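Continuing from the previous page of notes. For each protein in this section, the sequence appears first, followed by its structure tokens. Read the first protein now.
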Amino acid sequence: MNFFEGMDIQVNGLSFMNVGAANAASSYSSIILIVLMIALMYFFMIRPQQKQRKQHQDMMSQLHKGDEVVTIGRMHGKIDSINREDKTVTLDCEGIYLTFDMVAIARVVKSADQTAADDEASDSDSATNDSNNSEKDNDNSEK
């Protein structure tokens, strides 16, 4: 307890009443300011980082053989094998096989499912184009 709390204090003709009450209000506002700063730091720094980490973990759990990926060193390759026990992945980079930690995968460019669907679509497009070209050749030969 402060000895001067609740007493009237006069210094050079100025009266300072209830000095303790002013100090209490000042300390409450300081505490509120600190709590507010911590809350802002959580919402602007920590929470987005947690969301990003969760997204990356979900992406790692969905990796499959044949997915085209980019590493954190910007190396592009296709997944040849995944070892979930050692948390490593082997990439086929145009015939060169490299082993990386799974955390080194920055993003998936194309999943194996998308690649297979794209291959089927391109095969059907090329078959359609081949049949159209042969019909044009037949029309040109008849003329």
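Done with the first. The second protein uses the same format. Note its length before scrolling.
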Amino acid sequence: GSQVRLNNDRDITDKASHVFDMVRNKGEKASLIMIDLLCKEDPFLSEHLGLI
């Protein structure tokens, strides 16, 4: 039910946060590459996040 969905949403959020942290720790160049790829792959999300 709804509890399973909340847990899945938390898992996805945790995984995304982990990826962003890993890339950020690799430095500015890696972050810029990830931002560029995200903007190309998902312009709607990128705009929502204020990346474009």
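What the second structure shows: The chain has a mean pLDDT of 89. The chain has three helices and no strands. We return to this in next week's lecture.
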